[in-house]
Give the backbone structure.
Amino acid sequence: MPAHSFWGSFAPKRRASPACFHGSAHGSARWQLGLRERMNCRAARALEGSAALLAASILADSAVEHYRGSFKNPGMFAPLISSALTLLACGEGTTFGAARARVFRMSSFAMAVAVGAIGASFHVYDVFRRPGGMSWLNLFYGAPLGAPAALSVAGVLGLCAERLGAGATRLFGLPAGRALAALSSFALAGTVAEAAFLHFRGAFHSPFMWIPVTLPPVASGLMAKAAIQRPPQPRHPLTRAWLWVTAIAGFVGVGFHAYGVSRAMGGWRNWSQNVIDGPPLPAPPAFSALTALSLLEESGV
């Protein structure tokens, strides 16, 4: 990796790229922007849109799950605050992209990375502190080990968007497209593992419960292939179609989970209990957010 590290390059710049931050270019200067800079601008805003969807999913899911835990630990408020700030920062970056708000955006994204990492350690501790320690029973019914990592991923996506918006063409020491492909592959694989674990707990009683453990793994593999291909090859139309199907499946999953809530005792009339104890409504869109990241790489960043 170059001497200037990836994380070090997040330090605020005196000059923001005119392609993405309003007010930083005037008159004919806008016409002098190269194609790569304009593509970086579009990619940065699309990337922040993907991070926003993931942050919204995390905000709603952590609110429900930690409410179920009665917020017995004050730290359980941290992911709600962090994901809300991440969502706000993504909204500002996608809509306005003001240069003066860059410090707020980057601080929010860095906070999400840190809170997600700390939350993962707390969830591991929660499993080990239960009677029996690391056991299948505690893994099934303890704090989900992979959930906090999604918040860190949202933060990393936001930081990457800021780098692209500032004109960078490389992320993590790799060309931006390959880096995003690797990130989406890794994140999708982790989300698949979490879904597989929870659906196994539900005994895969519905055939549709196999969808999140069949479609996304293929999408993850396709992105891993894109990350290691040198030189990059044009994507097959089937790849893009598969990614779109996976993204749509994430939103359709909300409908299936809503149906699962309706099948519980009292159905939606007893929503205050069934939404908390039933299948998590905000969880499936995480697949859509991560697949949107894959589609961004497919667009030729």
User: Anything to note?
Assistant: The beta strands are 170-171, 174-175.
